[in-house]
Amino acid sequence: LEQMQNMTIDLNSKALIEKAEKDGVETMYKRKLGYKVQCGFGLQGVCCRNCGMGPCRISPKTPRGLCGADEHTIVGRNYARMCAGGTAAHSDHARDITHTLGLTTPGGAYQVAEPEKLKEFAQFMGVDPEGKDIYELAHEVSEVCLMEFGKPHGVSKLLARAPKVRQDIWKEYGIEPRAIDREIATVMHSTHIGCCADIDALVHMAFRCSMADGWAGSMIGTMLSDILFGTPKPVHTEANLNVLDGNNVNIILHGHEPTLSEMIVLASELPEMQDLAKEVGADGITLSGICCTGNELTMRHGIKIAGDFHQQELAIITGAVEAMIVDVQCIFPALAEVATHYHTKFITTSPKAQITGSTYMEFHEETALEDAKTIVREAILNFKNRDASKVMVPELKSEAMVGYAEEAIVGQLNNVVNTQIDDMNTLKPLIDVLASGVIRGVVGVVGCNNARTPSNYNHLTIMKELIKNDYLVVTTGCGASAAAKNGLMLKENAAKYAGKGLATVCQLVDIPPVIHLGSCVDNSRILNICSLVANALDMDIADLPVAGCAPEWMSEKAIAIGTYVVGSGIETFLGVMPPVTGSSRAVEILCGSIKDKVGACFHVNEDAEALAQDIMACIEAKRPHFEELY
Ligand code: NFS
């Protein structure tokens, strides 16, 4: 038990791991015990399963696969395929959002929440909004964005948001992504048996594909989500499993796409559903979120964050959850088994993520609200099956301020006293505090939980160290949940955790020292902010005192993100080694020479304290150049 409890630093999680043991329920923590030794070939990325002659594994005795592929080729192919997998996930999510924009109708389930943002974006995408009805325009923009997935000619239109110098760098290295689907298909083709066998070319392809994630798929996903559901604004919330309410029907939304979760929110607020909840003996309905759906909902509605990736099983183990509703990505198939020990309905909704043992209630955007009502009703009616003797809602939760979109950050910074601001959208305050060194730099600390490190440990260690030393932290994904659960997203805690400079800025500007920027798809907001600042200063993104960090990354999506962040000229620090160490050449390129091409590279250190120091040293080294340019 103690061994399992040591795999997380979250006290609620520790308590629930103990409960799981008592209840005889297997969790990830238990399974991890069984995986003492993980496959060394896999860890190094030198196992090739890309054809039926294999699997081939590179070792000193067998330095080549049956086709003759060496370790560099195998590692390069595996890495490129991870990038393709991640790009596919983010972009297919974005595709669904894009289709949904095409389904908007006045008064319908899906509407245009941000007409001005739509018009601006339409213009950017080459669609003239003049004289058009807003819904006509929405449908046209939807079509134009869908073309970004499969257009036969040209490169991503969204690259134009980046500074011109950056665009030139991409052109020069040849990583301007063409249609999103094409980049994914190209990687799958080139990594097929008997195709690309050159590590430089494989890395190049991995970068171009990942660029299609950051500078097309994810960016479209974020933009259109804002247009459909509203641009997030700072809002108060609470985080960690104590947000579950013992007297209410508890519905947890887990997964990624706001198209489903927004409808569940709408449905559960309907008087008929509230009445039904009372009829079954509950006080009301509590919605909460896990993973990125949780982030999207908390950003836009202040809906509480139940937990992060590593808490999904534990949430059910509280015994207080009527339904865990999921769509796509980061969903443990284990939830089906865990749910059998309690009354919880594990409801899958997407044809893309059906899971054996779940209750499958397919969700269609065309009949969104009706589908959502059916699902919510199912959850409410399950309340009577709750077994009080199995309920244990753990004690802890934290308050947090979340919901800082680009607009909110710029807007808040305009509150800085004593700066002459003539233009409401000026970035001057941010730039001033950065240039003067009051804030030393800005670091995006993002990404998953990984069972190779104690859950949340790397995130919190690094965030705390950074803010203590006056680095502003922005965060997304499960990193954001870690910060929210631990009080780092409260301005009131700035004095306690942040250095003097940052704490002062937090008070003046009314921001927390760690800023919630959204889901992982919303990492595109980071690209946007960097581009805005770089453009305003007539600099390249690589000139800015910023860095990216994924302390506990685990998914292919995270690898794609890391790769496009590096491609965007931002130094990127990983707290877990990706499976590339089997190729000295791959490591040399990714952690070194790629910098000659794109102005940044990866840095890996599995010691979180040391990684934080590495980040700060890297930014400090950038500062003189930045100050000089400024
Ligand atoms: Ni991001 Fe969202 Fe969490 Fe990792 Fe999964 S939820 S898209 S992949 S685990 S941060």
Protein architecture, described:
- The strands form 4 sheets. This protein has a 6-stranded parallel beta sheet with strand order 6-5-4-7-8-9. The protein has a 6-stranded parallel beta sheet with strand order 13-12-11-14-15-16, with helices on both faces.
- The chain is built from 26 helices and 16 strands.
- The protein is α/β, with parallel strands linked by helices and 630 residues long.
- Strand 5, helix 13 and strand 6 (304-307) form a beta-alpha-beta unit.
- FE(4)-NI(1)-S(5) cluster (NFS) binds next to helix 13, helix 20 and helix 24.
| Class from helix and strand fractions | alpha/beta
Biggest beta sheet summary:
6 strands, parallel
Oligomer: single chain
Reading side by side through the largest sheet, how are the strands ordered?
A: 6-5-4-7-8-9
In DSSP terms (H or I, runs of 4 or more residues), the helix count works out at 26
Bound molecules: FE(4)-NI(1)-S(5) cluster
Q: What is the molecular shape?
A: globular
Mean pLDDT: 96
Task: State the separation between the terminal residues, measured CA to CA.
Answer: 55 Å
Radius of gyration: 24 Å
Q: Which percent range describes the beta-strand content?
A: 5-15%
Q: What share of residues is helical?
A: 40-55%
Q: Low-confidence spans: pLDDT under 50, at least 5 residues?
A: 417-424
Q: Total strand count, please?
A: 16
